[in-house]
């Protein structure tokens, strides 16, 4: 009988590889619970460190810039995959994920500290333009979390050649498309809130 020479990292990777969907679902559920808890005011602002007021006020503009950067990195990453330049694809999709994480952390931090921003435009624009755009933006962002986590989990636990036998490409295309639309709508929402009205 031979001794098990696998490392704890190998065993964890093997477990995640065997249970990719379940692990991605659990990670997504925890992430979305944290998002909804923070957005719902369940995280007391007193437990968070206080950033300078200027930084907190600049978060919406920073997040609009992050969103534009993410649209660019997702687009470059998708084009790289189509050219079968998987090293570039991987770098840009990881950059997109980091940008999404940065966006989310800053957004939730600001929400926890100061709450949401009221729409300052006419009620008719709020009802028929702003709220529908905001709703679709939020819905797509929520839908993207499990899709992106699943695709990343597949990529992290399999050699590149094995990814061709998974749903990575199919789910990745859907996730990338929805992600770009969500980020673009976020920029439109920012413009309505902070530039137009």
Automatic annotation (TrEMBL):
What protein does this entry describe?
DUF420 domain-containing protein
The superkingdom of the source organism is Archaea
InterPro entries assigned to the protein according to its UniProt record, in alphabetical order? Cyt_c_oxidase_su3_a-hlx (IPR013833), DUF420 (IPR007352)
Originating organism? Halobaculum lipolyticum
Task: Give me the segments passing through the membrane.
Answer: 21-43, 55-80, 92-109, 129-153, 174-196
Q: Which UniProt keywords apply?
A: Membrane, Transmembrane, Transmembrane helix
């Amino acid at each position: 009988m031979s001794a098990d020479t696998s490392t704890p990292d190998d065993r964890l990777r093997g477990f995640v590889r065997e249970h990719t969907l379940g692990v991605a679902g659990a990670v997504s559920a925890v992430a979305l619970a944290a998002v909804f808890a923070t957005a719902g005011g369940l995280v007391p602002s007193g437990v968070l460190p206080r950033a300078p007021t200027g930084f907190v006020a600049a978060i919406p503009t920073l997040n609009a810039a992050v969103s534009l950067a993410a649209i660019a990195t997702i687009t470059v990453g998708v084009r790289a995959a189509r050219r079968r330049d998987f090293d570039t694809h991987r770098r840009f999709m990881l950059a997109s994920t980091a940008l999404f994480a940065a966006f989310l952390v800053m957004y939730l931090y600001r929400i926890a500290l100061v709450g949401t921003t009221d729409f300052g435009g006419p009620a008719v624009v709020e009802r028929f333009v702003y709220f529908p755009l905001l709703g679709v933006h939020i819905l797509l962002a929520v839908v993207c979390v499990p899709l992106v986590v699943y695709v990343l989990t597949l990529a992290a636990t399999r050699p590149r050649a094995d990814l061709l036998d998974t749903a990575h490409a199919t789910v990745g295309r859907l996730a990338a498309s929805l992600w770009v639309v969500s980020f673009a709508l976020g920029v439109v929402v920012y413009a309505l809130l902070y530039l137009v009205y």
